[in-house]
């Protein structure tokens, strides 16, 4: 899944983003439970948020 590879890459670069004063977060167009599971499976060091109504998720 392409999205997972992008999230993994963000995870590898997370400290670089923090050093530059930036914050990383991921928004899924799914339920909060699925977002929690996604973050748990991928062990993301940053928040994974849900947007089931696709207000910001495209």
Salient structural properties:
2 strands, mainly alpha, 58 residues, two-stranded parallel sheet
Describe the structure.
The protein is mainly α. Helix content is 50%, strand content 10%. The protein contains two helices and two strands. The two termini are 17 Å apart.
Question: Would you kindly provide a brief summary of this structure?
Answer:
It contains 2 helices and 2 strands; from the N terminus they run αβαβ. The chain is 50% helix and 10% strand. Strands 1-2 form a two-stranded parallel ribbon.
Helices, strands, pairings?
Blueprint lengths: L1 H18 L6 E3 L3 H11 L5 E3 L8
Parallel strand pairs: 1-2
Average residue pLDDT: 92
Helix proportion of residues, in percent? 40-55%
Alpha-carbon Rg, integer:
12 Å
Distance between the termini: 17 Å
Largest sheet: 2 strands, parallel
């Amino acid at each position: 899944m392409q999205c997972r590879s992008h999230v993994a890459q963000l995870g590898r670069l997370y400290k670089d983003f923090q050093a530059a004063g930036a914050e990383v977060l991921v928004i899924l167009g799914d339920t909060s439970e699925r977002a929690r599971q996604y973050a748990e499976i991928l062990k993301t060091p940053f928040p994974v948020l849900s947007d089931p109504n696709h207000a910001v998720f495209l």
